Amino acid sequence: MTELKIDRETMAKLSKSLAFIISPTDPTVVALKTAAETGTDSDIKRARQLFMKLKPGHRSAALEMLKA
User: Fold this and answer.
1) For 35-64, what is the mean pLDDT?
2) Of 10, 33, 44, 45, which sits with the fewest C-beta atoms within 10 Å of its C-beta?
């Protein structure tokens, strides 16, 4: 299994997927969008932490949407 590289472009795509799955105002969606826009280490770290705290089903669904 290959490891998914979560760069700024991927974070932007994840934020769009999660906005559809959860809500555009969800803190994780906002953090991913901010991290994609700014690219600062602190924003990326926060977005990653929030993404990992999501329900496994939401994470899986968002990642599956990237493959499509």
Assistant:
1) 95
2) 45
